[in-house]
Design brief:
single chain, 2 domains, 7 strands, about 40% helix
Amino acid sequence: MTQDSGAPRPLSPVIANTTNNKDRTLLIADDDAAFRNRIARALEQRGFIVTAVGSVAEALAQTARPPAFAVLDLRLADGNGLELVGPLRQARPDIRIVVLTGYGNIATAVAAVKEGAVDYLAKPADADAIEQALTAHGRKLPPPPSNPMSADRVRWEHIQRVFEQCDRNVSETARRLNMHRRTLQRILGKHAPREH
């Protein structure tokens, strides 16, 4: 069962100390509750034993019994997911960490890989892409997706996300995106770019 933020339960010591390939313990740290819960449920259906949290502090509490896998958002309620890569890897050197990044944070995601993450994915990432990144063998990045989102679609998704985070306030969204209000209104009035 998914353990969500509030009072995350520690992982079972028996499970967490297992070093064979059957260990499917997974920590998800993401401050977007809807996304976190959706991904947690999808990965549980794929056989992972999930602990889901929304903050750096909650994630650090899991280092006492570190999981085999971790999915970390760069932006968390009380800090940066990058702060978690080192402590998790120190607690469990064989942990496989995938970092999730929003539009425009690719440089930080690359820094996370240098710190010890095995891959990074741009949000919104789906459960298939996350599972593939977590379970890819070796240090090489997994092959590119057969049908990746276009740059226009990634941009559109990012704008929609910021718009929702600003409680659908066009003026505030435009200010945060450093975009003219009328330009933003035109973008919001259009449908998502079509994928080929």
